[in-house]
Design a protein that fits this description.
3 domains, single chain, 12 helices, mainly alpha
Length: 221
């Protein structure tokens, strides 16, 4: 996904450079496109505005499809987004729903909007950065507007053994800062940590029990 996103970012930047509002059809700012050779240079090419400005407050009559495209391209240039996130942004900018749907459909066709790839990327990053388990990952996908079927397909790829290993790493790390506390206190705090990260109670207590048993604090000669 990283290589794909880098390539998409380069394509987005090129697309943005070629879609500045106010230029002629050929994008060369010619005198003919501006309306004649005698017009002042300052008026030959309209200064590009903020494409995310509300459509209702723009000083001309821009093509709503062009404005929507620019909003989407700028959003994707900043970070990967789900289709729902992009729809929400377009709605915030007063973009008509039919225009938003048409633009996003086209972006999906060319691969710039891809909820399957986005969901896979999100799951990998949340696992690596925060050690989240399946339940918490499902919630992350829901908040990003990922279709339930797409989310289910992505989560089906999670290996239970790898998830248990991540839980053990989290517990071992936390235990190093809990030296001297009683077993019940350690267990309660560790279980709460794993629950917040989406691990089931059954897996959590099994991992905690093994980790405490293996801890140097409780090993006997």
């Amino acid at each position: 996904m990283s290589d794909k996103h880098d390539a998409a970012r380069a394509a987005l930047e090129a697309a943005l450079a070629s879609t500045s509002p106010g230029e002629g059809p050929a994008g060369n700012g010619s005198a003919a496109a501006a309306g004649g050779p005698d017009r002042p240079r300052s008026r030959r090419r309209r200064k590009p505005g903020d494409p995310e400005q509300d459509l209702q407050t723009r000083d001309a009559e821009p093509d709503p499809y062009d404005v929507a495209r620019q909003i989407v391209l700028r959003q994707l240039a900043m970070a990967p987004r789900s289709r729902q996130q992009l729809e929400d942004k377009l709605r915030q900018r007063n973009c008509p729903d039919d225009v938003a749907a048409a633009v996003l459909d086209r972006m999906t066709e060319v691969g710039l909007v891809d909820d399957v790839a986005y969901a896979e990327m999100l799951v990998r990053s949340k696992q690596a950065e925060r050690g989240l388990a399946r339940r918490a990952l499902a919630q992350e996908l829901r908040t990003k507007g990922i279709d339930p079927e797409v989310a289910a397909g992505t989560l089906d790829g999670i290996d239970e053994g790898a998830e248990r290993a991540r839980a053990r790493q989290l517990v071992d790390k936390k235990l190093r800062s809990m030296h001297g506390l009683g077993v019940e206190v350690q267990t309660r705090r560790l279980a709460g940590m794993l629950a917040r990260k989406g691990y089931s109670s059954g897996m959590s207590y099994a991992v905690i029990r093994d980790a405490i048993a293996d801890s140097e604090e409780y090993l006997t000669d």
